[in-house]
Amino acid sequence: MRIYNTLTKQKEEFIPIIPGEVKMYVCGPTVYNFFHIGNGRTFIVFDSIRRYLEYRGYKVTFIQNFTDIDDKMINKANDEGVTVKELGDKYIKEYYEDADALQIERATVNPRATEYIEDIIKFIEELIEAGFAYDIDGDVYYSTKKFSNYGKLAGQNLDDLQAGARISVDERKKDPMDFAVWKSQKPGEPSWESPWGLGRPGWHIECSCMAKKLLGDTIDIHAGGMDLKFPHHENEIAQSEAITGKPFAHYWIHSAFVNVDNKKMSKSLNNFFTAREILEEYDADTVRFLMLSGHYRIQINFTKELLDSAKASIERLYNGINNLENLKEEVNKKIMDDEERSYLKSLDKYRERFVEKMDDDFNTADAISVLFDLTKDINNNVNIGSSVELCKESEALIRELGNPLGILQNHIKKDLEAEIQALIDKRQKARKDKDFALSDKIRDDLKNRNIVLEDTPQGVRWKHIN
Ligand code: AMP
Ligand code: ZN
């Protein structure tokens, strides 16, 4: 398996620290609002990567944090007249509701920054002792000049970074690129006791500390959205490697943005759709299909048309499953014969192709094309004369390959079933009444929806055609 490593800017063979196990840390949401589908893409992408690693037999420890203390949290809590803790509790609950609805598997642990304050303080003390951080009037800064590798993830040295950065001017810092690891309390802000007085942790230190605490000094995969590469992840590396002297993460994976009119979807630009509002209109399979139908390192320019086209595509895949589910219910005594067995064996090539695509830096776009090819093959070859076992095995294979993408795990929509059955009954009655105009119309309308009717000894049955 090869992964594009942002640190080395090339695809590398994936070799985990412990064979068969993966330690993965993903930067999670700041819990001050409902998440938007830009955030959702990042969560879906890393959920699929995790699912795929599991599909390939790895035992994955998947950590995704909640940032529950920072300026945005404090401002929003003040606006809403609640405590920062209450705000965090509320939006963590909402996060789970939306993430579950998007068929995102629960993390092994979702650590909350505020539950690790003691460890964070210890981490900062170690940084100060080792000469990598300094305290000025209750604020503690990381000394970027002390870390000779600063800029290795961004691929720039400190001077170039400084020239390009928009940094907050703070006369007291030793160097403009230094960043806060501990912030002294401002009036009205929540705070914790520390050796530097009352205050709260900076954002970057949270992830360094929780990753070390939960996964150890070196982890296999560290991931997040592209915007986190610099400065967030650069700073995490500087902090963690200063303390341990070991590489912090072997593979860095960054997923591309969801844009709107070529601008990053973000709360500040107010150009976002929450996952929740999208889920009112579209199902999770559709949203996931959209997010995974392009490679994770390529930006998506979001439109509703794109969602509509994802909806039509996922329906085509579900139609394949629908047909098989219908066929399974037919009374058919046929036992799987050699011909069917060898046909089933021939489907293995789709599994191999799927794995080949996903092994190549999680190419979900190409993996989805394999799913279409597989479904088409099955649709053309498994039919009313096939054994129930072949139907079951074919369906199981489609679902097996859908699982790493978190799609195609649901059952056919019963309301669609009922609707079509009602139309079939209406058509039968029209035929009996010799109202052929009506019966033909019903048949033609269904055909326009890619549904064909077949007369069988068991009565009229319907089938989707692609
Ligand atoms: P936040 O809540 O802003 O800290 O973001 C949570 C996660 O979503 C981070 O990994 C971000 O990099 C990611 N993210 C934020 N905006 C977008 C976007 N427009 N497209 C894709 N990922 C995003
Ligand atoms: Zn982080």
Automatic annotation (TrEMBL):
Gene from which the chain derives: cysS
Entry protein name: Cysteine--tRNA ligase
UniProt cross-references to PANTHER family, sorted A to Z: CYSTEINE--TRNA LIGASE, CYTOPLASMIC, CYSTEINYL-TRNA SYNTHETASE
InterPro entries in the record: Cys-tRNA-ligase, Cys-tRNA-synt_Ia_DALR, Cys-tRNA/MSH_ligase, CysS_C, Rossmann-like_a/b/a_fold, tRNA-synt_1_cat_dom, tRNAsynth_Ia_anticodon-bd
NCBIfam families, per the entry: cysS
HAMAP family in alphabetical order: Cys_tRNA_synth
Catalytic activity, reaction form: tRNA(Cys) + L-cysteine + ATP = L-cysteinyl-tRNA(Cys) + AMP + diphosphate
Entry superkingdom: Bacteria
Keyword vocabulary terms for this entry: Aminoacyl-tRNA synthetase, ATP-binding, Coiled coil, Cytoplasm, Ligase, Metal-binding, Nucleotide-binding, Protein biosynthesis, Zinc
Organism: Clostridium gelidum
Recorded family membership: Belongs to the class-I aminoacyl-tRNA synthetase family.
Domain called Cysteinyl-tRNA synthetase class Ia DALR: residue spans: 353-416
A single MF term (Gene Ontology): ligase activity
Gene3D superfamilies on file: Cysteine-tRNA ligase, C-terminal anti-codon recognition domain, HUPs
